[in-house]
Amino acid sequence: MTRVYDSDPIDVLIADDHPIFRAGMRQLLAAESDLKVVAEAESAEETFALVRELEPRVVVLDAAMARADGNDITRRIAAEVPASRVLILVVNAVEECHQFALDSGASGCLSKLRADRELVEAIRSIAGGGLYFSALDTVPSGLAHGGGNGSGNGSGRGEPKPDEVLSDRERQVVILTASGYSSREIGSQLHISSKTVDTYRARSMDKLGFHHRWELVQYALRNGLLAAL
Q1: How far is CA 175 from the centre of its chain?
Q2: What is the pLDDT of residues 108-127, one digit of tens each?
Q3: Residue 152 and residue 155: Cα distance in Å, rounded?
Q4: For residues 38 and 159, what is the distance between their CA atoms, to the nearest angstrom?
Q5: What is the 3-state secondary structure (H, E, C) of the chain?
Q6: Around 121, how many Cα atoms within 13 Å sit in the side-chain half-sphere?
Q7: Is the pLDDT at 193 greater than 60, yes or no?
Q8: Angle between helices 213-222 and 194-208 (to 10 degrees)
């Protein structure tokens, strides 16, 4: 399915098994002219069926619902409908949210307690090609010591340090990408074009042996890069 995203509203699918919370999110998004809720789902299987049918730009997915169903719905979406990006929601355990998102290939995670303040920003960031993660008080357990299930050099064991392989500009792009900024936003901050940002990111991922943006988040966390912001 082909879309022209620059002019079209950001279409969103809400997947949560609590109808009251779905209604709240729908009302929140309805107030934004550039966002459009195209469907709702209350189970993992219904979510996947609707994603395949509609290819929404962003899927807002309740992690508890996905796990209760026993299906790795996020991995299925990432593998089979890559045009749809997933924002994971959790009740309160933000550390768990980060780990689940990083392991599954989601584009971000958000605590439901922050949804009223951050949901719109998170959706826009993800739709623009960025990543979005609620603030962490501590690095997720496992990531600080090279945990997680990433591919490539994502294990953290014997991987090159940023100052060993990345130029200063590549390091800046990696930090801002891992912090959730889109290519356009990074370009604005660094006074370069978004295309140049994409080139620096691709070059960095090639040097590090990564294939997915979420692997950059793992790498940034393991190497303390986000503390530089």
Answers
A1: 15
A2: 888 877 787 889 999 998 99
A3: 8
A4: 42
A5: CCCCCCCCCEEEEEECCCHHHHHHHHHHHHCCCCEEEEEEECCHHHHHHHHHHHCCCEEEEEHHHHHHHCCCHHHHHHHHCCCCEEEEEECCCHHHHHHHHHHHCCCEEEEHHHHHHHHHHHHHHHHCCCCEECCCCCCCCCCCCCCCCCCCCCCCCCCCCHHHHCCHHHHHHHHHHHCCCCHHHHHHHHCCCHHHHHHHHHHHHHHHCCCCHHHHHHHHHHCCHHHHC
A6: 13
A7: yes
A8: 70
Residue type, 127: A
Tokens 């992690």 appear where?
63
User: What Rg do the C-alpha atoms of the chain give, in angstroms?
Assistant: 17
Model pTM?
0.60
Of 145, 129, 109, 98, give the one whose Cα is nearest residue 202. 129
